[in-house]
Specification:
With 429 residues, the protein is of the alpha+beta class. 33% of the residues lie in helices and 22% in strands. Among the domains are: 144 residues, Alpha-Beta Complex (Adenine-n6-DNA-methyltransferase TaqI, Chain A, domain 2); 137 residues, Alpha-Beta Complex (Adenine-n6-DNA-methyltransferase TaqI, Chain A, domain 2), CATH 3.90.220.20. A hairpin with a 7-residue loop joins strand 2 and strand 3.
Length: 429
């Protein structure tokens, strides 16, 4: 069991992020705890036969904080034999991602494998270190390792930084107790986190389903009629199907000197740029920007296929890259069309109507938007659907927020627990 031992005699570690450690523990450099610390390389990716072998080839993306039992790619015996920078490391060993999207991630690798140059491997622990304890010690040091990587250019945790890293080391028996405790406790925490993430996925699916059903068929058990539109062969009898050009028009209005800058994202919708949680580049000038008023529909032309299409709550201005549409009929409720354009069907329609060869370069032009056939319920039905969706989506979002908060709390607790245990502030006996 784990218990706090405040009476334990402590000493200064000499390292700020570690603080005090038990007096009988030692501070050791990583390069004194492993017989071999190495890396690898990337064979020529243009030569297909190099990647048609059976030898596991570890990339930084394979390192995810858990035990690695397989790799996404494999390489041939021939390229390993003919490349001095490639070594088949015998399992088990520790791997650390030195740069890239997974920088700082750490795993125990349970298979023999070569690595690319973005991975650092710690092989053959000495008699002074229990590998699983070293893993947890490195997990506690992850933030420090990432911080040490920052400088000019791409963040990079060098092998030398890893070799010189110092961690607290108790005797082998206590290392084993600590590793066993953290293995079991963190595994339970990870299970709860995984369940919460699975719940989040289900809530997101439910949210999309609620939007799809309400916007495409209404919220009542209505009599249906056939359409000539391949995307939905039926719709409620009281609804119309009209071209977008008959409902919306883009009029480019000049910006006002007092206009606040607005930005659009999947996360936040259309809000003042300064309030965005996502990173947003600020423009030095507002040449050709567009004036926006409440109930305008604002489209990110490059992300229409992702549902980045929102009704404005603000008066302000947006980049010339955005489309700004206002209703040209009195029986149009902008918020309903925001929801409709977030439906799976319309995101797929916009994807096909967008020009470009890649997702990031797709562009939904005015002409292509205007050519889309749009579901048009009565105004009363639009308002009713929006009221229903606002309520249901708020309920689902509240559940999502609870699960996300739980995950954040558990991850913070896990991080704190690892730190306290591997530095001896919480003793495992």
């Amino acid at each position: 069991m784990a218990m706090i031992r405040p009476e334990a005699e402590m000493k200064e570690s000499g390292i700020k992020w570690i603080g005090n450690i038990p007096r009988n523990w030692k501070m050791r450099k990583i390069n004194s705890l492993f017989e071999n610390i190495g890396s690898g390389t990337t064979p020529n990716s243009n030569i297909e036969e190099y990647y048609q072998g059976m030898i596991n080839w570890l990339q930084s993306g394979d390192i995810n904080g858990t035990i690695v039992k397989s790799t996404k790619k494999h390489i041939s015996n021939e390229i390993v034999s003919n490349t001095s920078a490639l070594t088949v490391y015998k399992a088990p060993f520790i791997a650390i991602a030195m740069y890239g999207a997974s920088i700082g991630n750490i795993s125990i690798v349970d298979i023999d494998a070569c690595t690319n140059q973005a991975c650092c491997v710690l092989v053959k622990p000495t008699k002074d270190i229990y590998m699983q304890f070293a893993f947890w010690g490195l997990m506690a040091a992850k933030e420090e390792l990432v911080l040490s990587s920052r400088g000019g250019g791409q963040p990079n945790i060098s092998q030398n930084i890893i070799k010189q890293l110092r961690i607290p080391v108790p005797n082998i028996s206590e290392q084993e107790n600590i590793a066993d405790y953290l293995d079991k406790t963190c595994s339970k925490i990870d299970e709860i986190i995984a369940e919460a993430k699975a719940s989040i996925d289900e809530y997101k699916k439910l949210k999309q389903s609620v939007i799809d059903n309400a916007t495409m068929t209404g919220i009542h058990d209505s009599e249906m009629k056939y359409t000539d539109y391949v995307w939905f062969p039926e719709m409620p009898k009281s609804w119309d199907l009209v071209l977008a050009s008959l409902l919306f028009r883009e009029d480019v209005r000049p910006v006002d000197a007092n206009d606040v800058s607005l930005s659009l994202s999947q996360v936040d919708g259309l809000i003042p740029t300064d309030d965005m949680s996502e990173r947003s580049l600020k423009s030095a000038t507002h040449d050709n920007w567009k004036h926006v008023i409440p109930d305008d529909l604002v489209l990110n032309r490059f992300k229409g296929h992702l549902g980045v299409f929102f009704a404005s709550k603000y008066t302000g201005m947006v980049s010339f890259h955005y489309g700004v549409y206002h209703a040209i009929r009195d029986d149009v409720y902008a918020k309903y069309y925001e929801y409709l354009f977030h439906s799976t069907t319309y995101k797929n329609i916009f994807a096909l109507k967008s020009n470009g060869i890649t997702v990031g370069l797709q562009n939904l032009s005015n002409g292509n938007f205007y050519s889309v056939k749009i579901l048009h319920p009565t105004l009363d039905e639009q308002i009713e659907i929006v009221k229903y969706l606002d309520k249901r989506i708020a309920e689902i979002d509240s559940l999502l927020a609870e699960k996300e908060s739980l995950i954040n709390d558990l991850e913070a607790y896990k991080k704190s627990l690892i730190y306290e245990v591997v530095t001896g502030k919480r003793r495992v006996v």
